[in-house]
Every structure is written in C-alpha cells, then in structure tokens.
Specification:
A hairpin with a 2-residue loop joins strand 2 (100-102) and strand 3. It contains 11 helices and 5 strands; from the N terminus they run ααααββββαααααβαα. It has a 3-stranded antiparallel beta sheet. It has a two-stranded antiparallel ribbon with strand order 2-3. Helix 2 (40-51) packs across helix 11. The chain starts with 7 loop residues before the first helix and ends with a helix. The chain has helices at 8-35, 40-51, 53-63, 66-88, 124-133, 135-143, 149-162, 168-189, 192-201, 213-247, 258-287; strands at 90-97, 100-102, 105-107, 111-117, 204-205. It has 288 residues and is mainly alpha-helical. The longest helix is centred in the last third of the chain and has 35 residues, at 213-247.
C-alpha cells in the first residue's frame, strides 16, 4: 500500500498536494487561454503527450530491431495523416433560405450549409467504453474472497478476458462499446427534430426535401450514415495498441488510443485559431 495504516496526517498531505497541483495546472491553463492562442488546458495536455514521444520511441528502438522500428515510424505517420483527414472530414448539408419582405426591405434568399463532422464525438466514446470496462473489476473487488468457488471463476474470467488487452473478448467488447457510445453521443449532440424545426422557423429548407418530418428523417439518415465510418475509425485507433500487444508484444505504442486523437485535435484547433488571428490582423491593416 502507498499509505500503510492509512494515517490521517499523510492522507491530508496527499490530498492537499493533489488539490494544490490541480489548481496550479488549472491556473496555468487559464493564463494560457487568456494571453495566448488556443485552449490552455488542451495545450498542457498536448505538451505532456508530445514530450513523452522521444523517450517512448527510444525505448522501442532499444528493445526492437531496426526493421520493426521503421515499420512503427511509418505506421505512426499513417495514423497521424488519417486522423487529420478524419478530423477535417465533414458532410455539408445545403440549406436554402427563401426571400422575405419586411417593411420595404427584402431579406433572405441566401444559401448556406450545415456542417456535420464525420467524427463528432472525438475521444468521448473511448473514455466511456474504458470506464464501462472497469465496472467488472470493481464488481470482483466487491465480491471479497475470490480464491475459491464461483467467485474465483468470475475473477478469472474478468482477469483473462475483460481486462486482458490482448484477449479477443476484450477487443470485441471494447470496439463494440466504442461504436455504440459514438452513436449515443451523436444522437444527443445533434437532434434532427430540433434542427429541422429551427430551419423551418428561419424560413429555410433543404433543396429537394420538404420541411417538417421529411427534413427530420433526412437529417437522421445522414447522421446515421456518417457516424458509422467515424465510429469505426476511432474504434480502430483505440484498438491499435491492443492489437500490437497481441501480435508484436509491444507494451506501449506512443501514438495509439486517445493520445493521437487528443494531440492531433489540439494541433488542428490551434492552427485554425492562429490562421484566424492572422487573417483578422490583415483585415485590420487593410481597413486602417
């Protein structure tokens, strides 16, 4: 145990240290957000992820031969390129607004689109699926003595199939839950009924689709179609470290799971904010 005897003074010291460190990091993140570019907390997480990459790859090159190391480098580059492609991928649903006369002026008549990202959920499904997989472990801890009887059978099943990342049962359950949570999150984040009603109230319509229930069904159909490739993609990214562990016995892959999704997402968002700031500065110089 980290705290033998669970003394009160050490418990308070550990809790106080953790709270103070968390508050310090939050303060640094807020300062970065206010005086810099990008989300401060995301930038700190990005810096933490990127700082470990050289040591992780150095460990791989020390434990592996040159050819597997080169293959892992090529695999990492392919993963980063595919994540960038999927993060920028979106389905644009065209919306046309009819012209309206208000007083003596004519409004509307413009066309726009509704951007639906292929990977709207981000890393949320992976976090949810990982949390659910921890429930059987908590259940076995509640059982008490698992050395004999049916408790031992349950504990062995959880240890050999649920928590073992190289098990096919773990891979299947993990991937299936990621896909399910991706659909669940997208159903909450984007409501076709609400979106169709908002388009109708603003005097808009989707070309070729009648306002009302047909627009709702059209949006729901598109949402279900674009969610599947995004869910399969993040499931593949999340399962990649487990697959490498099973076939290549690689314990820690630097660019796998939520690591690459967080790092690439923060980098893309920061680049967009930098470009917007540069464009705003150019427009200000032009107006002056």
């Amino acid at each position: 145990m980290l705290l033998p005897g669970f003394p009160l003074n050490r418990v308070l010291l550990v809790i106080g240290t953790l709270v103070a460190g968390t508050v310090l990091i939050m303060w640094m993140g807020e300062l970065t957000t206010q005086r810099g570019i990008g989300n401060g907390m995301s930038m700190l997480i990005f810096a933490s992820v990127v700082s470990h990459l050289p040591s992780d790859y150095a460990t791989i090159v020390q434990t592996r031969k040159f050819v597997p190391f080169v293959l892992l480098i090529l695999l990492s580059i392919a993963i980063v390129v595919s994540v960038v492609y999927m993060e920028n991928g979106q389905r644009r649903i065209p919306v046309q607004f009819s012209k309206q006369v208000r007083g003596r002026r004519l409004y509307g008549g413009q066309s726009t689109y509704i951007p639906l990202k292929v990977n709207q959920a981000g890393v949320i499904p992976i976090i949810f699926a990982s949390s659910v997989l921890l429930l059987p472990v908590l259940f076995t801890n509640i059982l008490g003595d698992t050395s004999t009887g049916w408790r031992k059978s349950i504990a062995n099943f959880v240890n050999n199939y649920v928590t073992d990342q190289s098990s096919w049962v773990h891979l299947f359950m993990y991937g299936l839950m990621i896909i399910g949570f991706a659909y669940f999150y997208n159903a909450i984040a984007f409501d076709p009924v609400k979106q169709a009603d908002q388009i109708r109230k603003q005097g808009g319509y989707i070309p070729g689709i009648r306002p009302g229930p047909q627009t709702e069904r059209h949006l729901a159909k598109i949402l279900n179609r674009i969610t599947l490739p995004g869910a399969l993609f993040i499931a593949a990214i999340a399962l990649l470290p487990s697959i490498l562990l099973r076939f290549w016995n690689i314990r820690q892959f630097p660019l796998g799971g939520t690591t690459v999704l967080i790092a690439v997402g923060v980098a893309l968002e920061t680049m967009k904010q930098i470009n917007s700031q540069l464009m705003l500065r150019n427009y200000e110089g032009f107006l002056k």
